Amino acid sequence: MHPNGIVIHPDVEIGINCTIFQQVTIGTRNGRGLPVIGNYVLIGAGAKVLGSVRIGNYAAIGANSV
Fold it and tell me: What is the rounded CA–CA span in Å between residue 66 and residue 63?
């Protein structure tokens, strides 16, 4: 939605109709594991989703969350 400064690891799985705001980072943590993000997820500005975490469908991740 606001592409400035968004970083997404190329192997991350992201479901359909997700909203990703500015300054979000999605990727590995210390080279181990990648997130799997479900469908219809909203990721707020500045959030960091790192490592082997699974985000379920219809989840909302608040701004600046880690």
Answer: 9
Distances (CA, A) of 18 to 13, 30, 34, 57: 11, 25, 17, 9
Length of the chain, please?
66
The enclosing H or E element of 27 equals strand 25-27
Q: Can you give the pTM of this predicted structure?
A: 0.89
Q: Which of 21, 33, 6 is nearest to 61 (CA)?
A: 21
pLDDT tens-digit series, residues 34-56? 999 999 999 999 999 999 999 99
Q: How far apart are CA 13 and CA 65, in angstroms?
A: 19
Q: What is the pLDDT of residue 49?
A: 96
Please choose, from the candidates 29, 1, 47, 23, the residue with its C-alpha nearest in 3D space to the C-alpha of residue 12. 29
